[in-house]
Amino acid sequence: MKKPPDPRSPPRPPGQGPAADPDAALVARARVRDGAAFVELVRRHGAAVLRVARLFVRDEASAEEVVHDTWLAAITGLERFEGRAPFRAWLLRICANRARTRGARDARVVPFSSLVPDEAEGSAEDVLAGRFATDGHWRTFPTGWSEDTPEAVVLRGETLAVLERAVAGLSEAQRAVITLRDVEGLSSEETCNLLGIRETHQRVLLHRARTRVRAALEQHLTGEPP
Amino acid sequence: MLVCREMTGLVTDYVEGRLSTRDRLRFQWHLGLCRGCRRYLRQMRLTARSLGSLPAPVLPEHVREELERRFAGWFSGAGPQG
Question: Which residues does A91 contact at the CB level (< 8 Å), separation at least 6?
Fold first, then answer.
């Protein structure tokens, strides 16, 4: 049996708990119809909402409509926001729901049934084929990267474009998961809720996606074939 | 004994804390012995964290303006003018 959470020791690490929601003050102000607070929330999260909308709809005009739908639903539903999840996660879930609603009448929406791991998209092992000897050990170790922090990786010329291209080249399902988990920083639970997929599927998709993006980075940083 | 090929297949389960105790110990045992797999794990983690360092896309100006226009009536007038 899981013990109920002890209020003196929140189960979530700092920075993820409702108490630490950096948007709490702005949300409180937006609730009492402070327009400046709304503008600031849009400044902070507008781009993320658009990025998530793009995961679900295949053209830019539809994505922008989902953005408008999302903010309308969020602002009119602010009274129902209880702060149990961070505002950002709540907002992005609304965005996914709006995209779903739109999907009922818009064929350009990515079908949610496609968000399961599909053997046709290729396994992670395929990415590393040829890297192992018949006994399953590395033929040669992966070459070390001189960049050892994310900042150093993204500072290196053209690496940003390499990362973005690698993510863009993934299947829709892999792209959705890695974008929510690694780019937007949502938890696995939030990602599963938002996409309506099982945790095991989410993990398979994340694994395939990260394996591919790592291979693309490797090729760029060391000049080795993927 | 796990081999390197299996390690690369389990690395996300390991990072996500989803391996059984037994598999986690086998994984860590192999890591302790294999520099190649330590490097691979480090690169997978770095890949994930690097994606989090991508600059946020810019919300196109016309989308932002349209949002503010649509919501101008909703708010009491404390928003930006013009």
Answer: A45, A48, A49, A70, A74
